[in-house]
Amino acid sequence: MTGPQSSTLQAIKYSRAGLSLSAGSLQVLDQLRLPFETVYENVANCKDGHHVVRSMKVRGAPAIAIVAALSLAVELHFVLTSTPAVFPTALSVQDFVDHKLNYLRTSRPTAVNLFEAAARLEKVVVAAASAMNATSASTANAYISAAETMLEKDVEDNRSIGRHGAQAIIEAAAAAGADNTVQVLTHCNTGSLATAGWGTALGIIRELHVTGKLEHAYCTETRPYNQGSRLTAYELVHEQIPATLICDSMASALMNTRKIAAVIVGADRVAANGDTANKIGTYQLAIAARYHGVPFIVAAPSTSIDLNTATGADIVIEERAAVEVVRVSGRKVPASDEAAEATSAPATETVHVAAPGINVWNPAFDVTPSHLITCVVTEHGVALPSTSSGAGSQPSIDMKAFLAKFAQ
Ligand SMILES: CSC[C@H]1O[C@H](OP(=O)(O)O)[C@H](O)[C@@H]1O
Q: Where found in the cell (predicted)?
């Protein structure tokens, strides 16, 4: 099995173990090197999986969960086939899986997808290990199959999010008397480099594009990791989607001078009341969108919705190292065009861009309150704010009631 085939870039390449003695293969695109270098890194076990997530070689809420789950799948298969004595019973496999998932949970704290997947996979393994005639192999393979399913389901969910989101934007634009095509703004990277393929917010932009409804997409650079200028711009150029890069500081001026039909962002964790943790800078985009009367849309699979977290106040916001703010990596610009032609591609280098000694605050995410969000688009459809209950109370989006309609 390999990752979903598509013309979009592929962050994750996975193949299931072939013959019983051959190991599975998991390779991830090192996103710290994009867009200048395309390097896939092998992930052979949970230690590798934890590293590529923690270091942000792999990032994006769904991709984090999928890579973590598959890193355990390849390790589990390798141990089962190379040293089967490690797993004398089905229960020993269950214990191994629990231990490894707890370790993977420590890689990054904010995106709920990793924690949702871990809890779901633990249940799969408990059921398999307690089944009649359960064996080490049957229990391990139950885990591996469930982890593999995440790859395919994520792409299906993203295609569905794309359709629901594009329809909502076009209908709202038509109701506002706008043209048949729209201009939108997105933040961070929510495309094929943040998921198993197609993407969430960027999946809506892809759907608008392939259905002829996209006039133009604007993307913010998304300091300090630059997911926008390095990753989203890369995806948009790769697929020749009409797009323009702006600095984060330009977003309000853009909304004030261009007909932006919607701001579309992803999510790392949507709380039960619709408050949403997403890449730093999302909150101020929501404030600017509200001021300019621009719909603010969160696009997220149901695996990003955390009904166990009541409000955004309860979401842990990851803080990352200062160097990610004060240093920038990029491709060295040749002294002259002749130099560029004469030499091979210049090396990537890192430069320090801030006054040495300055303090740095580097929260990787912020929380947008539900009352600033026009809707949350999931694979099931569009979750809208409920009318505010009680005088003076802010409207919110009841995600529990929304998901209950689709409970299996
Ligand atoms: C498809 S959701 C991706 C989500 O994850 C990003 O954060 P990071 O790059 O730090 O993993 C950002 O918040 C995106 O909206």
A: Cytoplasm; Nucleus
Give every CB contact of residue 331 below 8 A, 6+ residues apart in sequence.
36, 345, 346, 347, 348, 349
Q: Is the CB of 71 under 6 A from ligand 1?
A: no
Residue type, 253: A
Distance CA(189)–CA(265), nearest Å, equals 9
Nearest ligand 1 atom to the CA of 63 is 1
Please indicate whether residue 190, judged by its CB atom, sits closer than 6 Å to ligand 1. Answer: yes
> What would the DSSP string read from start to end of 79-127?
HHHH-GGG-SSHHHHHHHHHHHHHHHTTS-SS-SHHHHHHHHHHHHHHH
Count of C-beta atoms within a 10 Å radius of residue 238 = 14
**What is the residue with the minimal CA distance to atom 6 of ligand 1?**
60
What ipTM was predicted for this assembly? 0.98
3-state secondary structure of 291: helix
List residues bridging with 182 in a β-sheet: 214
- Of 23-37, 133-147, 156-170, 284-298, the one with minimum mean pLDDT is 23-37
Ligand 1 atom 7: residue of nearest CA:
60
Condensed to tens digits (0 to 9), the pLDDT of residues 103-137 reads 999 999 999 999 999 999 999 999 999 999 999 99
Q: What is the pLDDT of residues 253-304, one digit of tens each?
A: 999 999 999 999 999 999 999 999 999 999 999 999 999 999 999 999 999 9
pTM metric for this prediction: 0.94
**C-beta of 154 in contact with ligand 1 (< 6 A):** no
Q: What is the mean pLDDT of residues 70-97?
A: 96
The answer to whether 48 is a known catalytic residue is: no
- Under DSSP, is residue 390 helix (H, G, I), strand (E, B) or coil? coil
Structure tokens at 357: 């000694």
Q: Which residues contact 309 (CB under 8 A, 6 or more apart)?
A: 112, 269, 271, 272, 315
